[in-house]
Amino acid sequence: ASLWLYVEQGDDKSFSALSPARQASAIFSRYGVPMIRRLSAMQGLASDPDVYGFSVALAWVKPGSDPNRPTLETLATFMDQATTRAFLSKTLPASEWVDKMKIYFYDGEKEMGRLPLEVWEDNFIATYKVPNYEVQKGVTCP
Known about the structure:
The chain is α+β, with helices and mostly antiparallel strands. 31% of the residues lie in helices and 23% in strands.
């Protein structure tokens, strides 16, 4: 099961000051992990013999790139189901989960190889509220 996500964010000097590895870790922790959690919750995936694991690709505008011709940085991750489910159930530390992943980073021009990805708890997805927007009564997101 795979997902490609474009992360749209404004200019942020504190994010720009981070190393590429730290930027990728922040994006993955904030958006990748919640999406993997949702993928793993989809009915039938765990028992489907054709689904070995999960793939999440995240792309964002490279800090400092030309706004008229933005460059996208991309983090592509591939992980097996058993290890991912162990991480999500908190029986496997994040560092061991990451060690077992295939990780590729592209700086917008070329592949940069495996980054030292870190994963931490980030509840932004669950807590952020879009200004002046209310979810219709009775509607929930998984």
